[in-house]
Specification:
This protein has 150 residues and is of the alpha+beta class. Helices cover 21% and strands 44% of the residues. A seven-stranded antiparallel beta sheet has the order 1-7-6-5-4-3-2.
Amino acid sequence: MAVFRIERFTPLPAAESWRRVTDWERHAAHVPLTTITVPAGRPTGIGTVFVARTGVGPLGFDDPMEVVRWTPPAAGRAGLCRLEKRGSLMLGRAAIDVYPTDSGSHVVWVEELSVRLLPHWADSLIAGAGRRVFGRVLDGMLDRPALPQP
């Protein structure tokens, strides 16, 4: 399983950072060839399932995710979101935490990802790609300029 962690500090208040990083459909604007479908008419919460579709036309795959923990930030308390990946190709989980700070907020994204059909030795490659892709997602969601990658 590939594991990676991304952290960002932002002057945005925790509630605004939370609103942005849990706006699932908006993630697609920062991930090439991906659309995200969220059930209409109800707010995100425990049990919400949304699907990221990556590909072109009929060539692609679905990455369904279920929210299994949903605790928005409030009164100096961190916001905690946990997602379980339920797809036939992508498996794993993600944790998105938003901590209030004196100058804004601190966002921490930890992903544990397994891709079926790929050998275990590919985990470090997947983790590296994940850090780059999801780092750009967080930068875009938080309206931060992209930082050069090492």
